[in-house]
Amino acid sequence: MATKNRGELKSYFETGKRPIQEEFEDLIDSKLNIEEDKASDAEAQNALIDNKFLTPKTAKKSVEAFAPVKQVNNITPDLNGNIVVTDINGTASSITGVITKNQVTGLETDLNNKQDVLVSGTNIKTINGQAITGSGDLSVSGPVKLIGVLSSNFTLANSNVLQNAFPTSSDAFTLSANKTYFLKGKFLVGNGTISHATSMGWLVASGLNITSMEYVARLFSSTLNGIATTVSNVQVSGIGSKVLNAANTAVTTTIEFEGVLRCTTGGILTPQLAFSTAPGGTNQMKIGSFIELTEIGSNTVETVGAVN
């Protein structure tokens, strides 16, 4: 009695043959028997046994024994291999696969309650009247200032000719078209002892058209480090040179000025200074002298801010 292959078993039943008892026994022993050939749990896990059949039950137990079911956050997959996760803690360096919004509890509702498109003025502010929604950059800046300040003494010509008050590195103020500017400054002048008066003015270039320029100039003279005893205040209109004081022999002259100018076309504005007579000695625009122009609006501006 032994197991035989199909070819041998078929040969027992060829035409004209009469199988004997042993051949019938071989036929029976060569077929699986549901009762006798079913693998036990132990046999299902024995890699040396190769002649037993597995039932679904023993197959499942065998798989679980060799490859235990993994858990996620202590949750065991259901019969279909799915896991329902209600809370996720920690972080992940990467997530693969696709998660739809309806698979995340509450996400779809939260997204539906969000505003679809941000509307300027509805729940966000503007910057300088510009909405922050949309593409591109917002330009945020304060008033445009043009400032020239001397970092060293500037030598002035010993003459009575109208001359530039500042060096070429800081005497060309580029004004924009259709603008209004606050104008202020201070000239600290050292000069000779020959009696002379001092005047100031402005040179325009590069198409600059000033429609109005009104300022007040205050001048006082004294000995070096001395106290001024005579002060003059002059209201000046326009860019032309204007004498600011009576002739004197003082060796220091201080000019303070402040006002407003308006222009329709842009261009270059340059400060100028003149002595009525060559003062003699060393003449200088001293370190610390400055001019400041601050843009405040269009050339017709009347108010800035909450003014009415």
Query: Quick one: biggest sheet?
Result: 8 strands, antiparallel
Overall shape: it is rod-shaped
With helices defined by DSSP (H or I, 4 residues minimum), what is the helix count? 5
The CA-CA distance between the termini, in Å, is 120 Å
Going by helix content, strand content and strand pairing, the class is: mainly beta
What is the β-strand count?
Answer: 15
Q: Could you state the oligomeric state of the chains shown?
A: single chain
Q: What integer value in Å does the Rg equal?
A: 51 Å
Compute the average pLDDT. 84
Poorly predicted regions: none
Write a structural description.
The chain is mostly beta strands. It is rod-shaped, with a radius of gyration of 51 Å. The mean pLDDT is 84. Strands 3, 4, 7, 9, 10, 12, 14 and 15 form an eight-stranded antiparallel sheet that branches. Strands 5, 6, 8, 11 and 13 form a five-stranded antiparallel sheet that branches. It is built from five helices and 15 strands. 16% of the residues are buried.
Entry summary:
The chain is mainly β and 308 residues long. The protein has helices at residues 6-11, 21-29, 41-44, 56-66, 107-112, and strands at residues 126-127, 130-131, 145-149, 154-155, 163-164, 173-175, 179-190, 198-205, 209-222, 230-237, 242-243, 252-265, 267-275, 284-285, 290-298. It contains five helices and 15 strands.
